[in-house]
Design brief:
Number of helices: 8
Radius of gyration: 20 Å
Shape: elongated
CATH superfamily of the largest domain: Vaccinia Virus protein VP39
Length: 264
């Protein structure tokens, strides 16, 4: 792909009006690859020329295009546009129900380790009600549904929310509405936030919700530490596990198990 991009004269995006291709996002189900071209401009040579060419590669099942013109390092752009081929992959992870991932859906790059991390996140807990926050496209929600009478999922990204069959909502808004409606207190809250962590507003809502257990998954130790500190007045850290989801890099996926300090 890089050689073909060079041959086509496609340049890297450096800022508004300067260059084209920002990211090439690849996901795999173990056999096929779904590519998403993230460009800085709508009028993109990469989308017109590199996208259709990529489908000639045997492993590539489909190609999509998304525009991300904002400064910073955010990868996801606007709603993806199909360029060629399939626009989703069915992901099979050991011990999990199959789920669909589209052009902008998040997928862990190491499926064997990711499956173990997701199973450990649920931790064989059972009960009447669980909340699955930052639920993604559905890796943990089906696991919870096997073990809890009721499961409510929350996901902000529209593509992933549609895969779950729910309306997209910010976690802050979901929790505030849940509390204001006087809904039942969950037995377990799962949260798998992006690198920025949950932040003060979500942590404050979790303390108010007062679930007996909160299990967190994080790809950023610094933001996880900040969230744990925010929750510390009401929750103690019972255990912490690391998972090598990005081999040959210094990055670890972390799962933290929290228990409420005193019963209500």
């Amino acid at each position: 792909l890089k050689l073909q991009a060079d041959a086509l004269g496609i340049t890297a995006w450096r800022g508004p009006g300067d260059g084209d291709l920002r990211y090439l996002w690849a996901k795999t189900d173990g056999e096929r690859v779904l590519l998403t071209l993230i460009t800085g401009e709508v009028d993109s040579p990469a989308a017109r020329e590199l996208g259709p060419w990529a489908l000639t590669l045997a492993e590539v099942a489909g190609v999509a295009h998304s525009v991300q013109s904002e400064t910073g390092n955010a990868i996801r752009g606007d709603a993806p546009r199909a360029l060629a081929g399939a626009q989703s992959l069915t992901i099979h992870l050991e011990g999990l129900e199959p789920f669909e991932v589209g052009p902008l859906g998040f997928l862990q790059p190491n499926p064997v380790v990711a499956a173990r991390a997701y199973r450990d996140l649920v931790d064989d807990r059972e009960g009447a009600l669980a909340l699955d926050l930052y639920a993604g496209a559905g890796s943990t929600t089906p696991l919870l549904r096997r073990r809890f009478t009721g499961v409510e999922a929350c996901e902000a990204y529209p593509e992933s929310a549609r895969a779950l069959g729910i309306e997209a909502a910010r976690t802050e808004d979901f929790l505030r509405a849940w509390i204001d409606r006087g809904e039942a207190r969950p037995d377990l809250v799962l949260a798998n936030p992006p690198r920025g962590g949950m932040g003060p507003e979500v942590c404050a809502a979790l303390r108010e919700l007062a679930a007996p257990r909160v299990h967190l998954m994080s790809c950023n130790a610094q933001t996880l530490a900040a969230d744990l500190e925010r929750l510390a007045p009401d929750y103690e850290l019972e255990g912490l596990r690391g998972y090598d989801t990005l081999p040959q890099t210094p990055h670890l996926e972390l799962v933290a198990f929290l228990r409420r300090r005193s019963p209500l």
